[in-house]
Amino acid sequence: MAYYFKEHRLRIANFMAASDKDIAMYLQKSSFVKTSNGYWLAWDKDNVEKIAILPPDHPGEFPCEWLYDAGTIEQAVALVEAGLYIRTTDYNAAQLVMAEDLPKNIRPLPEKSRESQQRCKGC
Per-residue pLDDT averaged across 36-45, rounded? Predict the structure, then answer.
């Protein structure tokens, strides 16, 4: 069950904006809802064509994601709660470790081991 909030959620809005002034301005006049699976959604009260989405495990240094043309806010909430929302950004890519950054006693897998690993994934 989703919880709809009548008042502005300043802490959530600041987390969604992540220092982006345009997003912060958009969120000043937004309504907020928290879904049963932990997502926050924010939308302009007069226009639901653009909905800000904050996944529960969203890193704070990146601004929120966006859902466009969801129909109604109820449809957007149903989509997110059903697990049908597909994240638009891979935040793990920002945390990739290069082989030269690994400690000296840790080595990347040799190519042959990677091929074996791929075959095992299909088993």
Answer: 91
